[in-house]
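Technical annex B. To support the medicinal chemistry partners, we prepared a structural model of the target in complex with zinc ion, based solely on the information shown next.
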Amino acid sequence: VQLYILPYGNCVVDKGRVFTGPADDGVLITTPIWGALIDHPRGKVLVDTGMHPDHVADPLVRFRGTPREGLITPVMKPEDTPMARLAALGIAPEEIRFVVNTHFHFDHCGCNAWFPHATFVVQRAHLEHARESSRFFRSDWDVPGAAWLLPKGEAELLPGIRLIPTPGHVPAHQSVVILLPETGWVILAGDAIGLMETTEPRAEVQAWNPSLYRRSARHLLRMQDDLGALLLYGHEQRTFASWRHVPDFYA
Ligand SMILES: [Zn+2]
C-alpha cells in the first residue's frame, strides 16, 4: 500500500470568516488544496478531487457576485487536477476504483465527474444533507449514473483503510485512517481540522457546528497520539509544505 499526496492548487481566503473568527476578519491567507491516492492491492482509492477545472481560466467563476466573492479566491493551474496528477503517475481515471469524498465543499469534489467509473464513497447522512442544502455545487458531486457506497458511521473500505465520521465542519464529514507497511498509521483528516490553531482550547472556529467540530478534532488528535499516526489535515500552508508530495510517496 502506498499513499501519494496530490497538490490541487491553492485558495486565498479570509482567515477570520472562513476558519477562525472575527479577530482575523480581513486577514488573507493562502491555503493549499489537496487530495490523496491510496494505491492498495485491492484497488486504487482517490480521496477528494479538488476544485473544478473551470477555476483555472476564471478563478472567480463560482463566486463572482455571490456572498463568497472576496472570501475565497481559487488559484489553480492546469496541472492542479487529480486527472493531471494521476496522469503524471501513469494512471488513467478508469483505474480508480473508489473516490472517497470527505465532504462536498467545492474544493473537495470539483472533479468527481471525471471519475464516472468509480464508486463514490461519502457518509450517507452527508449525501442526504447535501441534497437538501444550497451550500454545495450539485453538479460537482451528483454525477449522472454514479455508483454510491454510503456508510452510516465508521466503516472499513478495504483492509487497512477505515472511514471515520468527523462531523462539525459540515454535517457527517468523514476522515480516512490508513495503515501503511512502513510509515504506520496515517490520518487524512480533511477539514475536520482546518487550521491547527482552531483546535486550541477556547479558540474560535467557523464551522457548521463548532462544538461538534471541536469534539471531532479532539478525537483525531487523541487518535494521532494513541497510534503514533501521521496527521495530514485541512488547509495549512506550513504543514502541507512539509509533507511528501507526488511523485514521492508514503509506503
Ligand atoms: Zn476544504
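Notes passed to the chemistry partners:
The longest strand covers residues 2-14.
Residues 105, 107-108, 191, 235 surround zinc ion (CB under 6 Å).
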